[in-house]
């Protein structure tokens, strides 16, 4: 689903959201209900593609936790209502690539060392009919994802799929596209649905565009 550059968004007056964020947001870019519907559609696509393979999900924290949890829950529900049961295992890695609203040159990866315990299993992914997938919140230039993929490849997985809720159109794209994504959005700094600005706005259900007042209020 593509959101155009001239899309004005939805008025904040149409929705309920935490009162402590009043005055900090421009508009609602994607309402929570649309996020839920789109995530369910992605779950159906993934279920159709994986066949009888099991799934190992690597959730990218912190921003990806709500998307990952909702996506996994949709896949579980679809599995319960189908003739085939999909087994899923979940692990986590944490990335830090922003200071305030600016992307940092050096990305910090935390938790990746714990993935070494998966090496034996992932080296026979195809033979063990396992399916390896990343759950990420947002893909921007693709630099962040490439660094993460390079770190994971040393564990020699046979199959890697990337799922991202958002793909951002940037002035310097590198051509990277995830295998599954929910929305293609303009080059905006968005918050909500676990996406943060200096650890604020994660409790906002909708995906919104933060305004200058909000950036100044929560700047560190």
UniProtKB/TrEMBL annotation:
<dbReference type="InterPro" id="IPR050408">
    <property type="entry name" value="HGPRT"/>
</dbReference>
<keyword id="KW-0328">Glycosyltransferase</keyword>
<dbReference type="GO" id="GO:0032264">
    <property type="term" value="P:IMP salvage"/>
</dbReference>
<dbReference type="InterPro" id="IPR000836">
    <property type="entry name" value="PRTase_dom"/>
</dbReference>
<dbReference type="GO" id="GO:0005829">
    <property type="term" value="C:cytosol"/>
</dbReference>
<feature type="domain" description="Phosphoribosyltransferase">
    <location>
        <begin position="34"/>
        <end position="197"/>
    </location>
</feature>
<keyword id="KW-0460">Magnesium</keyword>
<dbReference type="Pfam" id="PF00156">
    <property type="entry name" value="Pribosyltran"/>
</dbReference>
<keyword id="KW-0808">Transferase</keyword>
<keyword id="KW-0963">Cytoplasm</keyword>
<comment type="pathway">
    <text>Purine metabolism; IMP biosynthesis via salvage pathway; IMP from hypoxanthine: step 1/1.</text>
</comment>
<dbReference type="GO" id="GO:0006166">
    <property type="term" value="P:purine ribonucleoside salvage"/>
</dbReference>
<dbReference type="GO" id="GO:0004422">
    <property type="term" value="F:hypoxanthine phosphoribosyltransferase activity"/>
</dbReference>
<dbReference type="GO" id="GO:0046872">
    <property type="term" value="F:metal ion binding"/>
</dbReference>
<dbReference type="GO" id="GO:0000166">
    <property type="term" value="F:nucleotide binding"/>
</dbReference>
<keyword id="KW-0660">Purine salvage</keyword>
<keyword id="KW-0479">Metal-binding</keyword>
<comment type="similarity">
    <text>Belongs to the purine/pyrimidine phosphoribosyltransferase family.</text>
</comment>
<dbReference type="InterPro" id="IPR029057">
    <property type="entry name" value="PRTase-like"/>
</dbReference>
<protein>
    <recommendedName>
        <fullName>Hypoxanthine phosphoribosyltransferase</fullName>
        <ecNumber>2.4.2.8</ecNumber>
    </recommendedName>
</protein>
<dbReference type="InterPro" id="IPR005904">
    <property type="entry name" value="Hxn_phspho_trans"/>
</dbReference>
<keyword id="KW-0547">Nucleotide-binding</keyword>
């Amino acid at each position: 689903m593509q959101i155009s550059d001239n899309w004005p968004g939805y008025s904040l007056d149409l929705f309920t959201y935490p009162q402590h964020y009043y005055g900090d947001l421009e508009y609602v870019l994607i309402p929570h209900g649309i996020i839920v519907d789109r995530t369910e559609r992605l779950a159906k696509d993934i279920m159709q593609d994986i066949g009888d393979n099991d799934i190992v999900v690597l959730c990218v924290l912190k921003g990806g936790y709500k998307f990952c949890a909702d996506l996994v829950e949709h896949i579980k529900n679809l599995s319960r209502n189908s003739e085939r049961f999909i087994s899923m295992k979940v692990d986590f890695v944490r990335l830090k690539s922003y200071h305030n609203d600016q992307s940092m040159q050096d990305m910090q990866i935390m938790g990746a060392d714990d993935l070494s315990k998966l090496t034996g299993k992932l080296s026979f992914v195809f033979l063990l009919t396992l399916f390896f997938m990343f759950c990420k919140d947002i893909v921007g230039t693709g630099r962040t994802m490439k660094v993460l993929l390079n770190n994971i490849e040393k564990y020699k997985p046979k199959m890697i799929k990337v799922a991202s809720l958002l793909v951002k159109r940037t002035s310097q794209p590198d051509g990277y596209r995830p295998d599954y994504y929910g929305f293609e959005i303009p080059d905006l700094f968005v918050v909500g649905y676990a996406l943060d600005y200096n650890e604020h706005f994660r409790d906002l259900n909708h995906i919104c565009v933060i305004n200058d007042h909000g950036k100044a209020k929560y700047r560190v």
